[in-house]
Design a protein that fits this description.
The protein is α/β, with parallel strands linked by helices. It has helices at 61-80, 87-114, 131-143, 151-154, 161-171, 181-184, 187-203, 234-247, and strands spanning 8-11, 20-28, 34-39, 48-52, 56-58, 121-125, 147-149, 174-179, 208-212, 228-229. It has two domains: 1-114, SH3 type barrels; 117-247, 3-Layer(aba) Sandwich (Rossmann fold). 45% of the residues lie in helices and 19% in strands.
Length: 249
Amino acid sequence: MALYYGCSVFVTKGKFKGRIGYFDDDEVDEHDQHIGFVSIGHPLYSREYEIPMDSLREITTEDLYKRQGDIQKKMFEMKYLKTKISEKSKVDLLTEFIYIESLFSDKYFKARFMSEGTGKKIFISHSSLDKPMARLLATDLVEAGHCPWLDEWQIKIGESIPGSISNALMDSDFVLVLLSKNSLESLWVEQEWQSKYWDEINEKKVKILPVLLEDCKIPELLKTKKYADFRDDYEKGLRELLISLEYWR
């Protein structure tokens, strides 16, 4: 896919591998190499670098999520483990982190408040400890045209939490069960997917779609189901899930 000026990019290889920046322009240099001019971070605050075009691609939500975590880890190491880093590198990290926060917030805001999907109604059953992954998945489902139900998006102040969840479960086409060690210890998650499981049996239609986030003991009633595998490759797991959502009409 061709990049357009002003888009956000992910660096796939070379010195800046794994970094996220702003694509400003491109040209062919004196060595006939096609290079892009990329600010690693927000273009108003960060330095611009020359990076080969074959090392650049558009970002995904997962890129933002992972890079955000990487930078947070480095910041923790700098503050608490006293890891040495140059002032230049520290500034680059901070400006990149601010840029990622703004991009992620923009995607999340649009998914939550400005999108009206016409696809499947999808209840996301998850442990509160897996909330970051639930948000990430909900954002990508909205961008794919679906209508995910996430508790923090839909339940308003003063509303009955059990009542809202019950209504959402009844109204949903599918329940995504985010399987992890955290969710296996959650009675809420267990009750949510089991309530839809009996609809699946009675209607003889697939209603429960397991999503495996990490190695864990899969509940007995879900062991015969194929799961979307998000353990090592988020994008592959997402593709499998979206294909299945189109198949189970």
